[in-house]
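Re: beginner question about structure tokens

> Can someone show what the tokenized structure looks like for a real chain? I only ever see the sequence side.

Sure, here's an example I had lying around. Input first:
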Amino acid sequence: MKLDDINNFIGDIDLELFDQLLKGRFNDRHLILEIGCGQGRNIIPFLNLKKTIYGIDVDEKNVALCKIVATSLGGNPAFFSKAPANILPFENGFF
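And the corresponding structure tokens:
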């Protein structure tokens, strides 16, 4: 695999997340919540791995960008919404 292929697959993710991915921490996880999803850089590997990922952020522009990223990588843009971390828009036990 070429360096460009690796970068396209994982994107510009946080180093700590990259470490956890390499350690297999998400291998058995298929439903993921990204709290504070920002502009979507950490959702890329999960979408490429065909995981179901939801994201929340307090900034509508960030949510809009995540929806674009999700759409372009086969994810569901409806799974990204504007919400604060202390008031999750999901039922208890959803994740």
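Each token stands for a local structural state, so reading them left to right follows the chain. The beta strands are 31-35, 52-57, 80-82.
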